[in-house]
Amino acid sequence: MGMISCHGAVRETQDEYIVMGLAGPAERRPRRGICRCHRSRGRRYLALMLGLILSGAGASDAAGLALGDPVPDFTYTLFSANGRAGSAQRLSDLRGKPVVLNFWAGKCPPCRVEMPEFQGFYEDFQARIAVLGIDVGAFTDLGSRDDARRLVTELGVSYPTGFTEDQRVMKLYQVYAMPTTIFIDANGKLVKRWNGVLNRDALAAMAEHLLQR
Question: Strand ranges (DSSP E) for 32-179?
Answer without folding.
Answer: 75-79, 85-90, 99-104, 130-135, 161-163, 177-178
